[in-house]
Amino acid sequence: MAGDTHADRARFAAMTEGTREDWAIIAGHFMPFAGKLADRLIAHLTLLDGDYGGFPVDRLQHSLQTATRAHRDGRDEDYIVMALLHDIGDTLCSYNHPDMAAAILKPFVSEELHWICAQHGVFQGYYFFHHLGLDRDMREHFRGHPHFEACAEFCEKYDQAAFDPAYDTAPLSFFEPMLRRVTAAPKNSMYVKKTETA
Ligand SMILES: [Fe+2]
Ligand SMILES: [Fe+2]
Questions:
Q1: CA 124 to CA 145: how far, in whole Å?
Q2: Closest CA to 33 of 71, 1, 78
Q3: How far, in Å, from the CA of 105 to the mean position of ligand 2?
Q4: Residue 68, in any domain of the structure
Q5: Is the predicted pLDDT of residue 193 greater than 80, yes or no?
Q6: Mean local confidence (pLDDT), 48-57
Q7: Would you say 45 and 58 are in contact if contact means Cβ atoms under 8 Å apart?
Q8: Which residue range is the domain that position 51 belongs to?
């Protein structure tokens, strides 16, 4: 980090030697770092730019189009941001990409939105697994789950429909303020003290 000096760093070589002063220094660095989460997500989303993988649109355009369709259908900001990020794991979680977006979103969104994101890969499979010799009904494993219909709806209305090169897709800059608002403060995290309830 710019401006880092040794005075800005903890002195321990192993955490067993750590002191309250050390952790005050570290905690002082954490909030500015965490505050730049949205910037890191934007940088990572742009890694999908130009990455077609054989699809009619590249993975960034697919992500933007999924979010645009959700926005134009009147979804709330948390939902739109989930739609924007749902495939961000394609780069580093090539064999389980929904897990990555779900993990990123977990502190910020409802349990239902987290579930939709985590399971969208299986539900999206309804639209193509049979072309690859797989079971398109793999999602039936989840039939009866409280979020089954919501996840099926996400894939039907927004995700499977977001491969149209002619669609008027909103740019990433349109979604940036939403992404910043949704990721500004975690609703649940093991690093955040629970507030006492009366
Ligand atoms: Fe996906
Ligand atoms: Fe997708």
A1: 16
A2: 1
A3: 15
A4: yes
A5: no
A6: 96
A7: no
A8: 38-182
Residue 5 has pLDDT above 90, yes or no: no
67 CA from centroid of ligand 2 (Å): 10
In a domain, 189, yes or no: no
What is the number of domains present in the chain?
A: 1
- CA–centroid distance, 79 to ligand 2, in Å, is 14
Give the span between the Cα atoms of 157 and 175, in whole angstroms: 19
9: CA distance to ligand 1 center in Å? 40
For residues 84-96, average pLDDT: 96
CATH of the domain at 173: 1.10.3210.10
Q: How far, in Å, is the centroid of ligand 2 from the Cα of 186?
A: 24
Is pTM, for the whole model, over 0.85? yes
pLDDT at 184 > cutoff 60: yes
Q: And the tokens for 188?
A: 């649940």
Output the CA 63–ligand 2 centroid distance in Å: 6
Report CA(155)–ligand 1 centroid distance (Å). Answer: 9
